[in-house]
Amino acid sequence: MAQFEEVSKQSSQHPKPAGLVLQYGTAGFRTNAKHLDHIMFRMGLLATLRSKKTKATIGVMVTASHNPEEDNGVKLIDPMGEMVTPAWEGYATQLANAEQGDLLTALKDIIEKENINMSQEANVFVGKDTRSSSASLSQAVLDGVSALGGHSKDYGLVTTPQLHYMVCCQNTQGKYGEATIEGYYRKLCQAFIQLTKNASNCTDDQKHLSVDGANGIGALKVREMESHLRRELQISLFNDGSKGKLNHQCGADFVKVQQKLPTGININPGERCCSFDGDADRIVYYYTDSDGQFHLLDGDKIATLISTFLKELLTKAGLDLKIAVVQTAYANGSSTHYLEDTMKVIVRCTKTGVKHLHHAAQEFDIGVYFEANGHGTVLFSKAAEEKIQQLAEDPNMNDERKRAARLLQNTINVINQTVGDAISDMLLIEAILAIRGMTVQQWDAIYSDLPNRQLKVKVSDRRVIDTTDAERRAVSPAGLQEAIDTLVKKHRLARSFVRPSGTEDVVRVYAEAETQESADALAHEVSLAVYRLAGGVGDEPKPL
Ligand code: G16
Questions:
Q1: Total domain count, the chain
Q2: Burial code of 485-513, b = ≥16 C-beta within 10 A, e = fewer?
Q3: Which atom of ligand 1 is nearest to 357's Cα?
Q4: What is the pLDDT of residues 267-287, one digit of tens each?
Q5: 311 and 233 together in one domain
Q6: Does 1 score more than 80 pLDDT?
Q7: Which of 2, 79, 87, 253 would staple 56 via disulfide (CB 3.0–4.6 Å)?
Q8: From the candidates 11, 51, 65, 134, which is the catalytic residue?
Q9: Cβ(440)–Cβ(297) below 8 Å
Q10: DSSP bridge partners of 361
Q11: Model ipTM over 0.90
């Protein structure tokens, strides 16, 4: 077949280094950019096959998100804008690791297993972040698509969630929105402006927000969007990429893990700030108080703010819809208690990775999902959206219920339901704070986080760690969980778990306890247990 000859020919321009084996991780392939050219070409091939199989447009985003500038990676987007399904993650790994001479066999194997009609048209949307390696790597994706005769549309520099949104718009024939960047800004900003009309006496101070763009794509896109906001939100942008390095001492991951201000930001005590990550799919908020103390409002606090707002609106609208919050093991214990005991909402815990949270959230009328690291969104079932619309349009309905239904409609429109989206989440949070006349301090005071600490441990092969119970317990290596259990017992209100990262070559350690000293000590003790029992490399972890 001519198509396969073309694949053979083109793949020789994107050869696989013999023996290199990479796994599809938490959010696709991710490693140093110099190892990724063949992966990108092959993901172009795979996306084309997926498009032929689903008869829909597929997305390929070239990004390594929160990782350092020298890394890169790829995220595959399925027709409704969600992450690609697990079976196809398996195919991605097979195709990525087939030696050069075995590539056609691996490709034909997928075609046969999935019974793909190769004469079916294929469409692939491609986007990239601002890393220096992204231009040539996204070209490799485009080469892969064209080698299999697929059509591609190159969106160039976009945030990951913007590409997810484009894919969903395209496959819903514009029902979800227009598949253009301008269309995205218009839909989100119009909804934001409608929402903020419900805020009374909002001062210029309350409309002001400082944004740390992580020196990445999010900064560029915030600039692009600003005019659509008609000064209803006034943004001071820091780390806009004009001088600093991507994600270096800044961005959502740095702020969350280090629990401190990013460099390159100038704020006064009490001022509201947020940080995006390198591809703008995560957001965290923070402020400093008059004593200079740093206060973080992470994904858990965001989920609490949003679900409280939605629950109140549902009550006012008189709508009986089931709302749940989905978290991971990283969720602060205080947030889970507050949600379950005070707010009385259903809480679910899944493995790390938005694909898992997204899936769990789909089981409810309204599923609010957030990882503590600030990656999350809200999903509304079709039935829930219809009920809200009926109510908003019912001529016999009283004003208060109608107003609540309209607020819910605009809330739906400001949210990017395809995946966590820093820009969309920021607009939603800003709208909620404005409508409720709430300061960042009042939001922070909803509950108090248990002190916590996250550490990374280098081991020779992180796959020796296997976990169960939504990653809350380690089943291997032998003795590790028992060691963690013993260490946890030494501290009050303590909890700790370990898991291999799916985006970096490290084991992650999480600990929380009654005091910061206790959380720090526990995190260090557990790190030592990982180092000793799971093949640590380099120096032994030192106390904090
Ligand atoms: C990705 C995933 C997130 C996950 C994070 C860290 O985020 O999309 O769901 O929480 O990696 O994963 P891990 O702990 O396995 O390294 P991003 O923003 O880096 O794409």
A1: 4
A2: eebbeebeebbbbbbbebbbeebbbbbbb
A3: 9
A4: 999 999 999 999 999 999 999
A5: no
A6: no
A7: 79
A8: 65
A9: yes
A10: none
A11: yes
Where among 365, 399, 421 does a domain terminate? 421
State the Cα–Cα distance between residues 196 and 185, nearest whole angstrom.
16
Q: Is residue 167 part of a domain?
A: no
Nearest Cα residue to atom 10 of ligand 1:
353
pLDDT tens profile 451-497: 999 999 999 999 999 999 999 999 999 999 999 999 999 999 999 99
In a domain, 426, yes or no: no
What does the pLDDT read at residue 528?
Answer: 98
| Pocket perturbation via mutation, ligand 1, pick of 255, 373, 456, 457 by most ligand atoms within 8 A of CB | 373
Strands 507-512, 495-500: parallel, antiparallel or unpaired by DSSP?
antiparallel
Is 168 within a domain?
A: no
Alpha-carbon distance of 299 to 316, in angstroms, equals 26
Ligand 1 centroid distance, CA of 352 (Å): 7
Written as six digits, the tokens of 15 are: 């050869």
Contacts of 520 (CB under 8 A, 6+ apart): 453, 511, 543, 544
**Residue 412 covered by a domain:** yes
First and final C-alpha spacing in the chain: 61
